[in-house]
Every structure is written in structure tokens, then in C-alpha cells.
Amino acid sequence: MHVVPDWFQRLYDTTGLNFTVFYDAYDWHRYVSGLRMTLLLGLVTIALSLVLGALGALLQGSPSRTLRGLVNGFVVVFRNTPPLVQIFFFYFGLGTLLPAAGTASGLREPLLGNVQWAIVSLSLFAAAFNVEIFRSGIEAVPRTTVEAAEALGYTRWKAYRHVVLPLALRVCLPALNNNLVNLLKTTTLAYAIAVPETLYAVKQIWSESQNVLEMMVVLLCTYGLLVGGLVWVMHRWERALRIPGYGR
User: Fold this and answer.
1) If you count DSSP H runs as helices and E runs as strands, how many of each does the chain have, helices first?
2) DSSP strand E in the chain: where?
3) Cβ atoms 186, 46 nearer than 8 A
4) Is the pTM of this model over 0.90?
5) What is the DSSP letter of 22?
């Protein structure tokens, strides 16, 4: 039961390599809590960015010039500014404009905390790229396919949801895969506003235990496994949706 902790304890005693996270219960708890937060940030921002990206791509084809202009402006702003600056803008800028809510202890807390602002900022950042990715996929769908759906009585929204988007998704999945992987790695920027994700937790551990090298190894391996898992899932999804002869 204690084989792994005992082995890492002996490793420290004999070599000086101090992987406290594997034999110290307190450090292990902090590391796991940070990992949970990273997974939460990753899953929520991926889901939101996909929804916003698909919606934005639909609005880009809207007959309304105003809607098209708003979407294009959103894409330009969020694609051409650093994600860390965006996080600071939302948390330190817009966050100060929101009213504070009272608590049972009599203190006043902002309506959105650092975790919520990190989710908002990262989701919008990735969504700006997803809009263009989905748009390129939609443009790859033959116009005759859309006309056939409309001839069968589909409304514009139903044709988009049932015909155009499923076909466009198959075309743009490789580019989407790259953007979502980049989003998962970008979640480390939430460290800048004290979101207790993996980097934040590991930094606390090495600050107290003075084992920077060991914890950096743990951190690199952790993100290698997370990104590798996401890439595997996306590739499985891509193979499952593949239509022989379509988009090739």
C-alpha cells in the first residue's frame, strides 16, 4: 500500500531527488487539487469555445451587416491580443466594474471570482479562433448540399444544424484539434490571477520544499499526459466522424 511513497522517500534519502508530491500527503493533496482545477478549466473552456465558435460562424453568414460586423470585430480583437492581457482586462478591468455581493460574514465579494473570469477569458480567446475554423469548414460544404436541404423544407437554422455543421465539422477537425490542444496549454495563464490550477499548486510546493527541478519534471509530465490524452480523444473523434471519400 505504501510502496510508492516509501520508494520516493528512499530516493530522496539516497540521491537527494525530492519528489515530495509522491510521499507527502499534504503536497499530494495540493497537487491533485490543482490537477482537478486544470481539468475543470480545460473541459469547460473547450465546451464553451466550441459552442461560441459554431454560433459565431453561423452569424458570420447572417444577412445582417451589423451581426457580421460584431462577429468580425470580436474575432479581430481576441485573435490579435495576447491571452494574458485578455485575462488581466477581464479580471482587473471589467471585474472592478461589477457590483459586489454581500456574504453571511458581512464581507462583500465580487459576483465573478478569478476562476469564473479565467473561464470567460479563455473561452472567448479560443472561440475567436474556432469561429474562423468553423467558417472555413462551412465554406467547404458544397452550396448544392445546402440547396438540397432547403428544397426538402429545412429552414436556414435546421439546415445549418443538421446538414452543414456536421459536414463542416468533419472538414475542420484537424485544425480544431490544434486549437483545443493550444487552449488546454493556455490554461496555465490562469496562474497570473491566482487560480489554483496545476502550475499554481506546483509553484507552492517547490517554494516550500525547495525542489524546483523535481516539481518541474512532474509539471512537464503532467501536461504531456493531459495533452496526449486530448490528442488521442480528438483523433478517435476524427476517425469516428470520417466519411470515406468526403473531404479528401
Assistant:
1) 10, 2
2) 100-102, 108-110
3) no
4) no
5) G
Domain boundaries, the chain: 25-99+108-241
Q: What is the largest CA-CA distance in the chain?
A: 76
Q: Could you give the CA distance from residue 201 to residue 41 in angstroms, rounded to a whole number?
A: 15
State the Cα–Cα distance between residues 205 and 26, nearest whole angstrom: 10
- What is 25-99+108-241's CATH topology? MetI-like fold (1.10.3720)
CB 84 within 8 A of CB 189: yes
235 grid coordinates = 483523433
pLDDT per residue as tens digits for the range 201-248:
999 999 998 889 999 999 999 999 999 999 999 888 888 877 666 554
Q: Which of 165, 85, 95, 86 is nearest to 133 (CA)?
A: 165
Query: What distance in Å separates the CA atoms of residue 130 and residue 124, rounded to the nearest whole number?
Result: 10
Per-residue pLDDT tens digits for 126-157: 999 999 998 888 888 877 877 787 787 877 77
For residue 99, give the DSSP letter.
P
Q: Indicate the Cα dihedral angle 175, 180, 185, 190, nearest 10°.
A: 130
Asked if residue 53 lies in contact with residue 60, where contact means CB atoms within 8 angstroms, the answer is: no
